[in-house]
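Homework help board

Subject: predicted structure for assignment chain

Our instructor gave us this sequence and asked us to write out the predicted structure in token form, then describe one feature. I got the tokens but I'm not sure how to describe them. Can anyone check?
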Amino acid sequence: MIDIETQQELATLYSDLAANDLQPLWTQAKELVPFIPKPATLPWLWRWQRLSELANRAGELITVERGGERRVLLFSNPGLNGRPFATPTMMATIQYLNPQEKAPAHRHAAGAIRFVLQGDGVSTTVNGDACEMHPGDLIVTPNWTWHDHTNAGTEPVIWFDGLDDPTGLALDAIFFEPHVDYTQQIERPFNVTTRTYGGRGVLPLGTVPTLQTPLYLYHRQDVDEALNALLEVSGGPMVSVQYINPTSGRSALPTLGCEMHRIVPSGATKPYRKTGNSIFVVYEGSGYTVINGQRFAWHKGDVFVVPSWAIVEHQAHQVSDLFAVTDRPILAALGLFRETTLDQPQQIIGHFAPK
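My token output:
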């Protein structure tokens, strides 16, 4: 029991600390140094039906031009107090480009990836290399590379974007620069980086490892073949591949990890948890994922978030491919990555109902 005099002295101390822009650790140690991660990010899911409907409406009403730069819908995780981020480290968006439309060239400190969901006839020019974009392809724009988008086709194109903007903002290291021209001049034949660096097991002689990948376009067909080969060897219920920088074997971007997971209907995956956040995009199939006891049913085109250290299990109703973007490279570089597999499946205590 603290006596009245001591209470008064403590009150004065706390007041003096606040007046000098100081705070005591002992009153908030459990919040600042928890025994396990306590992410603000909520497990969440957005339905493709609603996403595509809203993107189409934006396509009719919003023009793509300097200033706005892009027609983009930002995923806003309800646990992040209205911030336009899917997780504290990653921005995720749905981008929509109408036929015969061009999104202007710019570059920024943020690294970004684009995963194509719908439509053909579009290309992203990255530092002068026009990379064709087809459903299931991954296009990488490393930080500070010029990039613009052109839809030369006859139908709208929708793709998923993942960016490390929140990380750059937290580090006060974000820069942005518009190109002097509306779009870049194409300096090399289409997809030259893919033809140069995309071959399996070969690189140009004398290639020096780079921090950022020199490979901008990863074809869906190559990923599909790799997943099929893994299934033949190991069976189900899930096999996974990562998209790498071919010069170093590391993640394609130093801040964003990209993965593809194929799940077959042969039972649930083992319960698993890891530090770091993941954003999943259902490219094909249907099934459900249990996140911390809550069941998230998903179908083609849906997008869902798995927070850090959440327990995760996947189960497919049919052969399903889930693309994922993660912040794992950051945690691994800082020595903060940790993972574990659990023995017992989770008990389902609730079902997520998307808006």
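Reply (TA_rk): Your tokens look well-formed. For the description, you could write something like this. DSSP finds seven helices and 23 strands in the chain. That's the kind of observation they're looking for.
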